[in-house]
Amino acid sequence: MTEKSRTGLNLDALFIGDKSENADIFKKTMDKLIDEHMGWRLNYMPQDKPLITENDKGSETFKKTSQHMQSVLDDLSVRLRSNSVPWHSPRYFGHMNSETLMPAILAYSYAMLWNGNNVAYESSPGTSQMEEEVGQDFATLNGYKDGWGHISADGSLANMEGLWYARNMKSLPLAMKKIKPELVSGKSDWELLNMSAEEVLEILNSVDPEVAADIKAHSARAGHNMDKLGKWIVPQTKHYSWLKAADVTGVGLDNVVSCPVDEHYRLDVDALEKIIRDLAAKEIPVLGVVAVVGSTEEGQIDPVDKIVELRDKLQQEGIYFYLHIDAAYGSYGRSLFLDEDNNFIPYDELKTVHQKYGVFQENKEYISRYVYDVYKAFPEAQSITVDPHKMGYVPYAAGGITIRHKNMRDIIGYFPVYVYDKRSGAPATLTPYILEGSKAGATAAAVWTAHRVLPLNVSGYGKLIGRSIEAAQRYYEFLKNLSFNINGNEVEVNPLTKPDFNMVDWTFNVKGNTNLAKMNELNLKFYQKASFVDGPVYNNDFLTSHTDFATDGYGDSPVPYVKSLGFSEDEWQKVQSVGILRACILTPFLYDRDNFASYAEKIKKAIEEKLTAILG
Ligand SMILES: *Cc1c(COP(=O)(O)O)cnc(C)c1O
User: Ligand 1 centre and the CA of 360: distance in Å?
Assistant: First the structure.
C-alpha cells in the first residue's frame, strides 16, 4: 500500500472485534505504549531518586491500601460488566454507538497517561497541536478552504457555539452604527439586520483593533439589541440541544421557530420560504436557519442545496439568514464523496470510484443524487457541527464544530491573559474561541490518530461509513419483507421511510388494528423488551431504541405515515403521537451479505420471541 493509493484499507484490522478477535494486537500495542510512558517518566531527570522506595512498598499500610484499591476496582468491574450495554455487538441497534476504532481507543488510553489539558498550549504542546490539525481536518472534510475548527465536548455544545456565532454576527451591524456610523452609512435598521456574514466580517476586519473591540463590546455579547435579532428557524426534526442553546444564549425559546418537514422527514423548503417571507412582511429578521444532516430520530438529510439556493435568492431581495448545518450525525458521511486529494468526486464517477475502493459490497444505488447534492453544498454554510463520537467511531467525549471563515472566530473571541498571552507566540490557541475551558488532550489524540489511520475520504472513512449505509439498507430491506404470525395474529412491520443515511425507523402493528393508541402500546412494550427496561441488557439478544413523534414537536408531519398504516385522520387527532422503533445501524460488520444473513435469522427469532411475550 503506497502513500498515495490506499485502495487496500482493511477495516477488520481496526476494531477489537465482537468476540475480541484482535485482542492480541490491542494488548500488544497497549503494552508497548505503556512501557514507553513508564520509560518516559523514568528517564526524565535521572538524577532524581525514586520517592517511593522498595522499603515503603513493603509496609503493612502500603499493602493494605493497594489491596483495597484492587477490591474497589473489582467492584467497578462487576458494576460495568453487569450494567453496561453491549454496544459493540451486531445485535445492538440502540443509540448512535457501536464498536469504536481500535486506534482511537489506543490513542486515547495512551494520551490519557500524559493528562494533557488543551485549555492552553503550554499545558499540552503535543495534543494542542493535534487539535489544531483535527480542526483543519474538519474544515477540509466539509469543503472549507479558509476554515477552522476544533473539538468540543459534544454536538450539543457545538450547536450552542453555532448559535453564539450567529447571534453575535447578527448584532454587529447595529453596534457598528452606534460606534462608527460611517461604516454602515445609508443603511436602514432592516438593512443592517440583513447584512451577510461576509459583509460584516469584511467591515470588522477593515477597522483598527480598538474600534473592532469597541464594536464587539456593544454587540449581543453585552446584551445589546437582543430583542431585534429575529427568529432562529429549525426543522421539526431538530435535536433538543437547539432549545437549550436558545435558552442559554439569551435568544429565547420564543424566538425558535419550527419549520415543517415533508413525508421523508426532510425540511420542507417551500414551508421555509413562506415562514421567512411572512416574517419579512412584519419586518422580523431571520437570525439563522439550521439544516440537519442525519436527523437524530430518523437519520434523514435536509436539502441543504435547496436552502442555499433560497438564501441566495432572498439575498437579492435584501433578506439574509445565517446557515448552520447540524451534521453532528452526518458530517463524516462527506468522506464518501472526497477523493484522496480531497476533491469532491463528480456524480457520474462516484460509483466507479466506490467500486475501486471497495466502499460497498453490492453494486447498488446506495447514494442518491439527492444526498450527493446535499453534501456538495456543505461549504456554503457558515458553520457545521461534526461529532467524531458518532460516525467518527471515536470514544466519548468528542464533538466538534467547523466554521467557513477562520476570522469569524474574532466575533466570539476573548483573550484572557492567564491562558493566552499574545506575546508568548504559542503556535496553537483555542480557549479564547471556544465555550469550554479545560479539556482532555487525550480526546484530540484519539481523533487525530483515527483521522491519520483512516483518511477523511473514500480511501478511509468513506469505506467505514459505506459499511454502515450498506448494513442499514440490508436491514431496511429485511424489515420491509418481514411479518410475523403470533398465535394467529398477523403482525406487520412498517418502515417509516427509505433511509437517507444509516438509520431505520419502523413500527409493528397487528394487522387490521385501527386503534393508534393500541399500536403505540405494542411498540412501547416491544422497546421495553429490547432495552435495559426488561432485565439485564447483557442477557438481551436484540437491542433497539424508541421515540415518539408527537404534535408538539412534529405538528402533523407524521400524518402521511400514520394514514398509510390504515389509521384515520381522526385517530391521529385523538392520540396526537406515534411511537416509533429506531435502529442506528453503525455496526461495521453487517454490511457483508453472509454476516447479515446469519444475523437476520437471529434477529428475526429474537423479535418473534419478544412479540410472543407481549401478545401471546
Ligand atoms: C447527536 C446530535 C446532536 C447532539 O450531539 P451530542 O454529541 O449528543 O451532544 C445534535 N444534533 C444532532 C442532529 C444529533 O444527532
Answer: 27
CATH of domain 466-615: 3.90.1150.10
Ligand 1 binding pocket includes 159 (Cβ within 6 Å): yes
Measured from the Cα of 295, ligand 1's closest atom is 13
Its CATH class, for the domain covering 153-386, is: alpha beta
Residue 176: per-residue pLDDT: 98
Q: Whose CA is nearest to atom 3 of ligand 1?
A: 155
Q: Which grid coordinates belong to 189?
A: 435598521
Whole-model pTM: value is 0.96
Res 423: pLDDT: 58
Residues 6+ positions from 69 with CB-CB distance below 8 Å: none
> Distance (Å, rounded) from C-alpha 512 to C-alpha 491?
9
Q: How far is the CA of 239 from the centre of ligand 1 (A)?
A: 6
**Each residue's pLDDT tens digit, 435-457:** 999 999 999 999 999 999 999 99
Ligand 1 neighbourhood includes 588 CB (under 6 angstroms)? no
Residues annotated as part of the active site? 418
pLDDT at 2: 47
State residue 506's pLDDT score.
Answer: 98
Q: Which of 152, 240, 385, 447 to mutate to test the pocket of ligand 1 (most atoms within 8 A of CB)?
A: 385
- Helix, coil or strand: residue 466: helix
Q: Which atom, in ligand 1's list, is nearest to the CA of 399?
A: 7
Task: Compute CA distances 101 → 192, 362, 388, 414, 461, whole Å.
Answer: 48, 24, 11, 35, 11
Pairwise CA distance, residues 582 & 560, whole Å: 18
Which of 393, 390, 537, 469 has the alpha carbon at shortest distance from 92?
Answer: 537
Quick: pLDDT tens for 205-254: 999 988 999 999 999 999 999 999 999 999 999 999 999 999 999 999 99
User: Residue 567: what are its φ and ψ, rounded to 5°?
Assistant: -90, 150
Secondary structure of residue 193 in the 3-state scheme: coil
The pLDDT of 346-367, averaged and rounded, is 96
Confidence of residue 1 (pLDDT cuts 50, 70, 90): very low
Domain boundaries for CATH 3.40.640 within the chain: 153-386
Measured from the CA of 292, which atom of ligand 1 is nearest? 13
CATH 3.90.1150.10: which residues of the chain?
466-615
pLDDT tens-digit map of 496-505 = 999 999 999 9
The H or E element that residue 243 is part of is helix 241-248
